[in-house]
What we know:
Elements: E1 4-9, H1 24-36, E2 41-43, E3 47-53, E4 60-66, H2 74-84, E5 91-97, E6 105-109, H3 117-126, E7 132-137, H4 147-151, H5 157-180, H6 182-189
Parallel strand pairs: 1-4, 1-5, 5-7
Antiparallel strand pairs: 2-3, 3-4, 6-7
Helix pairs in contact: 1-5, 2-3, 5-6
Pfam families: Pept_tRNA_hydro
Keywords: Cytoplasm, Hydrolase, RNA-binding, tRNA-binding
Site (Discriminates between blocked and unblocked aminoacyl-tRNA): 12
Amino acid sequence: MTDTWLIIGLGNPGAQYQGNRHNVGQMVLDELAARMGAGFKSHKARAQVLEGRLGIGGPRVVLAKPMSYMNVSGGPTAALANFYGITPDHVVAVHDEIDIPFNTVKLKTGGGEGGHNGLRDISKALATKDYLRVRVGVGRPPGRMETADYVLRDFGTAELKELPFLLDEAADAVEILVRDGLTAAQQKFHPAKSER
Length: 196
């Protein structure tokens, strides 16, 4: 059993997607990389990766941003898990979540993908749903807007003011998750009622 964690930040590659709600997972990884004081390098598994420790003496992590489109995130995820010998219970997917309000972070292991194609592809590639998820709330689309149109838009002006705090909180959630475990992270980020 490895003590290395694979943290996957979901999103789409390319400058035109960088500010999209759908790319919030990759934004969280940028925040973690900044905390680690290091940058991403290309990996043959079609991903940008950063290897290191979260905090002094903290757990070993591989931060990874797949360079494939969101809907085919599974290939790079499985390839990296294989390459580093990381089991699904040490894989953390950081992703946008429309089912929770903007500015909210929730964590869970396993369960459904809630219509999220990136997660669905990872579950298929890993042949299990039993990996960890850090769900970064982006809220529901307004009115009759299609979900796909909503998540592929940049954050609104009001949201952008709050976004740094949300990314900071999600990065904290990842750190607590890999350092102290899921229960400790859930207690901190959703103390009201535990969620499975």
